[in-house]
Design brief:
alpha/beta, Helix Hairpins, Rossmann fold, five-stranded parallel β-sheet, about 230 residues, two-stranded parallel sheet
């Protein structure tokens, strides 16, 4: 991979953004220039010298984007892309391939093997960082849209479930209140009915919160999110 270094310090990430970039290239000079450019742009960077090392780095670094050269000894960039797409934990990671090959069939091969973008070398650091930033922005927008759709689906399901439970619950409350109004029943029965009424009312309050649950999910473990009903 050939990268022309030009004013990389001018590229800055938006505050608070900490995207991780994995750079895979067998040329140490190119790795250094690319790493400097990306770090100056505000990214966390890890480098690997070949495809095998790049695959191993995926596990502990968990990059948001992989920048990989095609021509490398051992496992080349295309083979690395192919293997990445076979791994469930990494098949959706963004990949930008760089190559000196300009033939259309080479571009198609790279894209078919899983690359999201294909840059022809030499490429300036300005263009490289711009492509990285654009791809990350699109990926973030895609993830947010998926999150929104999931939240909407959860909300619709919650409303439907609450409706199905509320109908028999209200019928149960009605029967309990009729029992409480019956003065012929012994005191111990009234006490049990009051406990049942309190439980039924508590269920009704929880169902009301569930039906209003939307954007109150917080990160829990990994990709799992937990909904705080009391924040509704």
């Amino acid at each position: 991979m050939s990268v022309e270094h030009r004013g990389a310090q001018e590229h800055r990430m938006p505050p608070g953004e900490t995207a991780r970039i994995l750079v895979v290239d067998d040329n140490p000079d190119v790795r250094e220039i690319t790493e400097i450019a990306l770090r100056c742009a505000g990214y966390a960077v890890r480098c690997a010298a070949d495809g095998q090392s790049g695959l191993e780095a995926l596990e502990d670094f968990q990059p948001d984007l992989v920048l990989v050269d095609i021509m490398m000894p051992g496992m080349n960039g295309l083979e690395m892309c192919r293997r990445m797409r076979e791994l469930p934990a990494h098949r959706d990671r963004s990949v930008i391939v760089l190559s000196a090959r300009t033939d259309t069939k080479d571009r198609i091969a790279g894209l078919e093997l899983g690359a999201d973008d294909y840059l022809v070398k030499p490429v300036t650091t300005e263009e490289l960082v711009a492509r990285v930033r654009r791809k990350l922005a699109r990926s973030a927008a895609h993830r947010e849209e998926i999150r929104r759709q999931r939240q909407e689906a959860i909300g619709q399901l919650a409303v439907a479930v609450c409706h199905e439970i509320n109908n028999p619950l209200f019928a149960l409350l009605g029967e309990i209140q009729l029992g409480l109004a019956d003065e012929s029943l012994p005191p111990e029965v009234h006490e049990r009915l009051r406990c049942m009424e309190e439980l039924a009312l508590r269920m009704s309050r929880v169902l009301g919160k569930v039906s209003k649950a939307r954007d109150v999910a917080t990160p829990y473990v990994g990709e799992t999110r937990m909904t705080d009903l009391w924040a509704c």
